[in-house]
Design goal:
Chain lengths: 198, 198
């Protein structure tokens, strides 16, 4: 399975935001929505063996599970609506137990650290870093989790946790990419088994 | 320079559409907006040496020029607003002369064929095709133009024109990608000089 954790630092943790202002009032939730798009969509198909964990302001995590998801569309607005519905169920997320809000979408009362710890148990943690190894030189892991940040850098604490937890540190190219574009490149790297199988 | 032509088959050619329904009433203009995002955005920078040509229903072409553009944001909605403003200037586009609507955005009264012909004069035309050569085996061209379609396949006529004009036919991997994801992978291929330089 391929997994992606994306930390959204400024996004809301309550459902009272407008779908008409994702790039403004909703704390750049548009960035996270594009990450969901990149993670799941193929031309006329969904990547079923994928999970995306959106960390919302280090307080909640909304998980999209490709094997269960039903109502995912590629546009930002409809994905943001799924996040908003998940936040309407935030009080159902008790302890670290998930609450399912729509098919394949669930919310947990977990910040970055708990989510990273939980996911890392059964995955190879891949940190994207400008000083990392060229990804082309790294054998694609069987069950990778790529950890990304929104339009901000990781906080110092997140960076520290990630450095402690990461099994691999790679760079995807000479340019620094947006998180959603990094997900697309990571998929292509995995799809082609390290740019060898086309 | 890197260029991308994207054919949007169902998108409006008049500015009377709502920014709140890009995936529905606006004929999947969201797809084209995501292509603009993939083509231009780096983390904290714009790719200046890029042009994107959005073909609107084979009737108009809206061109985004990275060296001139000023008000581009990554979200779909604000890019769609730039397309809508371009369409408000459609009557200023006389013959094949462009009309600039906002800095770096212009509209031409040109469909797919005329746009492909115009751009191909100074570019290596790259067709993305599932039976193409693995992109990793192809030397990156100096001035490529990648030609893509929205959520629909190319029309028979478009496919024919493209087959006639294409200098290279490549595939980006074993999976069929959305146009915006294909642009991201194409950039990564060019950034890394064919997955060799990181």
């Amino acid at each position: 399975m391929r997994q992606f954790i994306v930390s959204g630092h400024d996004v809301p943790t309550t459902p009272d935001f407008s779908l008409d202002d994702l790039a403004g009032g909703a704390g750049r939730l548009d960035v996270l929505c594009r990450c969901v798009n990149s993670a799941f969509f193929l031309s006329h198909a969904i990547r079923e063996d994928v999970k995306v964990h959106l960390v919302l302001a280090d307080e909640f995590t909304v998980t999209f599970d490709g094997s269960e998801i039903r109502r995912l569309n590629p546009d930002e607005r409809s994905t943001a609506a799924l996040v908003r519905t998940a936040l309407e169920h935030r009080e159902d997320a008790i302890g670290h137990m998930p609450a399912e809000s729509t098919p394949g979408v669930s919310i947990r009362r977990m910040g970055f650290e708990a989510t990273l710890e939980r996911v890392a148990e059964n995955a190879t943690v891949v940190e994207l870093h400008e000083d990392g190894d060229p990804v082309v030189d790294v054998e694609p892991p069987q069950n990778p989790v790529f950890v990304l940040s929104d339009h901000h850098d990781f906080t110092d604490r997140e960076a520290e946790l990630l450095a402690e937890t990461a099994d691999r540190r790679v760079r995807l190219g000479p340019e620094l990419l947006h998180a959603d574009h990094a997900i697309t490149v990571a998929h292509n790297y995995l799809d082609t088994q390290g740019f060898t199988t086309y």
